[in-house]
Amino acid sequence: QVQLQESGPGLVKTSQTLSLTCTVSGGSITTNDYNWRWIRQPPGKGLEWVGSISYSGNTYYSPSLKSRTSISRDTSKNQFTLQLSSVTPEDTAVYYCAADGRPGWTKGAQGMAYWGKGTLVTVSS
Predict the structure, then answer these.
(1) Which residues of 36-65 are buried (b: 16+ CB within 10 A; e: fewer)?
(2) How high is the pLDDT of residue 104?
(3) pLDDT tens digit string along 73-89?
(4) What is the pLDDT of residues 30-47, one digit of tens each?
(5) Angle 90-12-4 from CA coordinates, rounded to 5°
C-alpha cells in the first residue's frame, strides 16, 4: 500500500516561497502505476488542485496558480516537492499530496487512490 507524508514549514510570511515535500513509501514515483498530485483545501472551502507530476516527470499546473508554482522530484529519495512563490494569506490551506492510479489522469482533485494526512500552512501578513 502506498503511503504519502507531507513535510515543510507550517508558517510562511507573505511574499515568501512556500516549500513542501512529499515522501512516498510502498511504491515508486517513477513507475507508471501512479501520477502524483498536490491539492489544497483553504479553511471553509473545497479541495483545489494545485499541480501534478507524472511518473515520467512531466508537470501540470492549475491555470490560476501556474505563474507561481513549481513541482519537482528527487527520484533517489522517492520524493516530490511543491514550491509556491509570492504567497499571500489567501494561500493559507491544508496542503495534501496524493497518488492518482488512473492511467493518463494528470489533473484535478478527485478520484485519488491514496492521500497524505495533509499539513496546514498558514501565510502571515
Answers:
(1) bbbbbbeeeeebebbbbbbbeeebbbbeeb
(2) 83
(3) 999 999 999 999 999 99
(4) 998 999 999 999 999 999
(5) 90
Among residues 99, 103, 81, which one has the least CA distance to residue 25?
A: 99
The residue length of the chain stands at 125
Q: Return the residue matching grid coordinates 504519502.
A: 4
DSSP H stretches of helix in 53-121: none
DSSP string, the chain: --EEEEES-SEEETTS-EEEEEEEESS-TTSTT-EEEEEEE-TTS--EEEEEE-TTS-EEE-TTTGGGEEEEEETTTTEEEEEE-S--GGG-EEEEEEEE-STT--S-SS--SEE---EEEEEE-
What is residue 51's three-state secondary structure? strand
Question: SS3 for 89?
Answer: helix
